[in-house]
Amino acid sequence: MPLYVVATPIGNLQDLTARAREVLASCDGVVAEDTRYTGQLLKHLGIEKKPFHALPAYDEARRAEAILDRLGQGASLALVTDAGTPAVSDPGALLVRRAVEQGVPVVPVPGPSAAIAAVSVSGFTEPRFHFAGERRGRAPRCSTSSGRCVLSSSSTNRRTGSRRPCAICGRRSETVPPWSRAS
Question: What is the dotted CATH code of the domain comprising 3-109?
Answer without folding.
Answer: 3.40.1010.10
